[in-house]
Amino acid sequence: MTDLLDIRGKRIAVVADPHLSFLSPEEVAAFSVQLKQLEGVDAFVCLGDLFDFWLGPGNWDLPPFQPLKLAFTSLSQAGVQVLFVRGNRDVLLEPRDVECVGGVVLDALIGGSHSSPVLLSHGDEYCLADIPYQRLRKNFRRPWLRAILRTLPWRLRFWLGCRMRKLSTSAIARKPMESMAINDDAVREACEAASCQSAWIGHLHLAATRTLHGGISLKILPAWEPGTPFETLELESVTPS
Ligand SMILES: [Mn+2]
After folding, report:
1. Where are the domains of the chain?
2. N or C: which end of the chain has fewer CB within 10 A?
3. Is the pTM of this model over 0.85?
4. Contact at 8 Å (CB) between 67 and 37?
């Protein structure tokens, strides 16, 4: 999973961590309305955790997700590139899972302008201090495990999803921020490998901007909530002051 799509030169709407759930249809509806109101963008990027938990095949068929499915489909039919970066909650997303809405699944991409490229990813890959999570992340990226999980009966996946969500919520609630913290060296290395001077991530559910050692600027997007506008990655002034 080292795909790195380059969409520099395009105007991109970006959102992180909406954590949409079939348990909160009103939030799914609010998000879908925002998608429908998007104008003047070439691409829409969700920087991970679009779903509070991706349950595998059948997830899109849940009634609360119908407005979302429609909104993404209209967007892609209108010529907007719809890009889903895998987060930790929807790590099991496969490209074929979003074909029905005309979307693309990936782990990272490059946006911004040709002179100021920005590396966009979920950001969990930089939280190296969280060792139990990094172990889980590695396992969920093993093709054989992914294949097994996909073929489990829907009811079992639904049960597992609800259970994982509970465990994950309580683990994060207890976790000190230090262990969630970003490893600056990891960000810098990824930026250097992609020839970018800036990185945009989500995952931490807080809004922050800082300049790392070496001059790399890091922007952390807050988790979307109803009423939060999508960010726009403009072609100019992508470097925070
Ligand atoms: Mn998240």
Report:
1. 4-233
2. C
3. yes
4. no
